[in-house]
Amino acid sequence: MTMTAKILLVQQSRSAVDWLLPVLEKKGFDVTTARSQKAALERLAADEPHLVIVDDTSPRLSGPRVCRAVRAQSQQTPIILILAESGRENEEAGATMHLVLPFTSRKLMNRIKKIMPKEKETVLRIDELALNLKARSVTRGGETHHLTPKQFRLLELFMRHPGQVLTRRFIMNQVWETDYMDDTRTLDVHVRWVREKIEVNPSQPVYLRTVRNVGYCFAAPRAETSPDEGMEGEGKT
Length: 237
Hints:
By secondary structure, the protein is of the alpha/beta class. It has helices spanning 20-26, 37-47, 63-73, 105-115, 149-159, 168-176, 185-198; strands at 6-10, 30-34, 51-55, 79-83, 97-100, 123-126, 129-132, 137-140, 143-146, 165-167, 208-211, 215-218, 231-232. Helix 3 links the parallel strand 3 and strand 4 (79-83). The radius of gyration is 20 Å and the shape is elongated. Helix 2 (37-47) runs parallel beside helix 3 (63-73), helix 5 packs across helix 6 (168-176) and helix 5 crosses helix 7 (185-198). It contains 7 helices and 13 strands.
C-alpha cells in the first residue's frame, strides 16, 4: 500500500453502529462514505479503497446485495459485512469477513488489521519535504508540522502528482468530495495553510505553485524540468 489506508464505508444514516465513522477516522483511516449501492460503486471506482465495510444494520440497505455488487466490480478488495444481532452469515454475499453485533471497536480493529493489505510506505519524500503518512505531519529542514486531515489529504494529493497541473475542480473532488465550484475559498485558505508549513516564504512559493485560471502544481525546486508556463511565484490564490 502506498498511501494512507483508505476505507469505503457503506452505511445508511439510520444504523445500529453509527459510531463506526468517528472510530475509524480517530484511528487514522481515510474514510469515504456511501449511502447507497450506486454511490458505493461510484466511490469504489474513483477512490480504489483498500477495504470496504458494508453496514447491513439499516433496513433500507441490503448488505449482501451491496457486497455482491462490490465483489463483481473488484475481485481483490477485502470486504467486511456487518450484520445485526439476528443476522446470519451469507457466504454467497462475497464478503471477506462477517461481523455480527454486538462487537467492540477493538474487535473491529483486530479484524481490519487481519485483512487489510500490509502497509509498506510510511514516509513520502520529495526534495527536502518528508510527509509522514502515519503521523500526518510534514518535515522540512528539520522542522516538523502536524497537519489537519484536510491539509494532509491536500498535500498528499499534490505530492502524489509532482509536476502535474491539478485543476481546482479535481482538487475539490478528491479532497472535499464535491463538484460544487461556486465558492472555492476553502481551497484557497487550505493552500495558504499548507504553504505556511512547507515554504520558506509562503508569499513566494517554490513547491506549491499557482497556475493562473486553472489550479495548482506541486513542483520540486531541484527537479530537472521547470514549472509549466503560466505559473505565478506569488502566494496569491
